[in-house]
Amino acid sequence: MPLSPPSWHAHEFLFGAVPAIIGGVLLTAVPNRTGHPPPGGWPLTMLLAVWIVGRLGLAGSAALEPLTVALLALLFPVALVAVAGREFLLTRNGRNLTVLAVLAILVGAQGLFHWELWRFGRSVHGTRLAVAALLAWTVLEAGIMPGIAGGWRKAHGPSHPQVPSSRVDGVAMGLGLLALGIWIVQDEGILNEHLSGALLLAAGFAQAARLARWRPRHAPSGRSVPVLRVSCAFIPAGFLLAAWASLGGGTAFNTAALHAWTMGAIGGMALTVMVRTAAGHSGAAPTASRLTTGIHLAVAAAACARIAAALDPQRTMLLIPLAGALWVAAFLTFALLHGRMSGRRASGAVRPATPD
Q: What is this structure's pTM?
């Protein structure tokens, strides 16, 4: 049974591209997390091979049985859990176990996605479970923004104090996780729509308050943190759009919320982590050059265009191609920029990146 274009698009973003980014970053971080050398040789070759097999399985879904497609697509996340788990379980570190738990949830979400495709022709709950797992990890629990800000402060001395954690952070994380759980099963009538909307609304305001605590006078003056703030701003925006959908705004607002979270937040923060990881490999300073800042802003503009397309169907034929062009341009520029830097690193001719 061939996948419809929307199903293929959702699957390859949530279960193809994003897990590949997670895998690359995680395995690169193995020495910092475990004290062991990063995996190499046949484990990396195997991961690349099964990732390609999964992509080919999706591309050939018209000629394959649904179960075969699902099994081929699941090879990579299962193998990634096995390879990363082998390294992380030895440390008995709670943060590492959280990473493995999120990866395991993504495996379950992908299985649910394929079951829903086979049973109903489209996936709702599998998609939402994957989005919620990625949001819970990248922004609600892991604290990517404080981590990057903290790294900048270590490099620039104690004159830039870090904003301490407070009850606002705890309330925001708790409300966010609860609201995401309700959002996953929203169509099942677990809660009254108005009650679900009120919870999503409260989570949105709590996330906005948490983001506001990272005020410019407390944040580094360079561009690394401000560009990440742009990505983080899509988190409360997604909650508020989902809340409005529950409160009578219609399904278009749920579509807009989904793209605010995926293209804006997950895509933007994935790019941030990729840039920092690639800069570390190439020997360049882990800061945002003007070109890198432009890449991040292009991703944010792509997300805004896609959200607008959901809310204004009459301009869909203009806005969706615009969103796609900006997205492709951003990630292609990243690949070309850091591919060139890696090549210069290999030849011993790397120059530091433009400082913030």
A: 0.84
Contacts of 164 (CB under 8 A, 6+ apart): none
157 φ/ψ sector (left φ>0, alpha ψ -120 to 50, else beta): left
Residue 214 phi/psi, 5-degree rounding, is: -90, 70
Structure-token pair, residue 290: 């003007």
Number of residues in the chain = 356
Computed over every residue of the chain, the mean pLDDT equals 81
> At residue 205, what is the residue type?
F
Query: If you average pLDDT over each of 28-37, 252-261, 270-279, which comes out highest?
Result: 252-261
Place of tokens 């409005």: 244
Cβ neighbourhood burial of 42 (10 Å; 0-12, 13-18, 19+): exposed
Cβ–Cβ under 8 Å, residues 214 and 256: no
pLDDT recorded at residue 152: 45
- What is the per-residue pLDDT across 135-174, written as a single tens digit (0 to 9) for each? 887 665 444 554 455 544 454 444 444 555 667 778 888 8
pLDDT tens by residue, 52-80: 999 999 999 989 999 999 999 999 999 99
Distance of CA 94 to CAs 33, 132, 176, Å?
Answer: 11, 20, 21
Go through 226-239 and write b for each residue having 16 or more CB atoms within 10 A of its CB, e for each that does not: bbbebbbbbbbbbb
Residue 38 · residue 30 · CB < 8 Å: yes
d(CA 129, CA 256): 17
CA distance 350 to 353: 9
Q: Is 10 exposed, middle or buried (0-12, 13-18, 19+ CB in 10 A)?
A: buried
